Amino acid sequence: MKREVKVGLFIVCTAVIICLALLYLANEKGFFAGNYIFTLSSQSGDGFTEGMPVEFSGFTIGKVQKLELNDKGLVLIKIKIPQKHLKWIKIDSTFTLYRPLIGAARIIVTTDNLKSAALPEDKIPEVQIVNDINDSIEKVQPLLDKTTQIAENLEQVSSKIDVMAGKADMHVFGSEGTVPQVNKILKDVNGKLERLNPTIDNVNKISTEASEGLKDIGILRSNVDDTLNAVEDVAKGVDSIISTKKEPEIKLP
Amino acid sequence: MSLLENIGSAVIKLIKSFTDIINFAWKILIRIFNRNTYTSAMRTVLIDQIYFTSVQILPIFLITSIAFGSLLIGVLFLQLKQLGLTQYFGHVLMGLIVTEFSPFVTVLLITLRSGSAINTEIAVMKVNKEMSALEAFRIDVINYLMVPRVINGVISIVLLSTLFSVVLLGSGILFSGLIFGMSIDAYSNVLLNSANFSDIVIALLKSVVFGFFIILIPVRFGLQASHELTSIPIVVSRGMVNVFAAILTIEVLSLIIKLF
Question: CA nearest A14 in B: which residue?
Answer without folding.
Answer: B159
